Amino acid sequence: RELEKKFSGKHVVFIAQRRILPKPTRKANKLKQKRPRSRTLQAVHNSIL
């Protein structure tokens, strides 16, 4: 929504190499590796803004 306000009426192309990892579930706990903050949905969206 924020981007729609900023760039209304303009063409916008995203070129980004950002990966969003899913929320860890109980099954994924066996991987024993925490999901870094930079891979969360909110962090990726904020970094694009």
Automatic annotation (TrEMBL):
Organism domain of life: Eukaryota
GO biological process: ribosomal small subunit biogenesis; rRNA processing; translation
Keyword field: Ribonucleoprotein, Ribosomal protein
UniProt feature, compositional bias: Polar residues: 39-49
Record's GO cellular component terms: 90S preribosome; cytosolic small ribosomal subunit; small-subunit processome
InterPro entries in the cross-refs: Ribosomal_eS7 (IPR000554)
Record flagged with keyword Ribonucleoprotein: yes
Gene Ontology terms, MF aspect: structural constituent of ribosome
Stretches the record annotates as Disordered: 26-49
Basic residues: bias regions: 26-38
PANTHER family: 40S RIBOSOMAL PROTEIN S7 (PTHR11278), SMALL RIBOSOMAL SUBUNIT PROTEIN ES7 (PTHR11278:SF0)
Family (UniProt): Belongs to the eukaryotic ribosomal protein eS7 family.
The name this protein goes by in its record: 40S ribosomal protein S7
Organism: Calanus helgolandicus (Copepod)
Taxonomic placement: Eukaryota, Metazoa, Ecdysozoa, Arthropoda, Crustacea
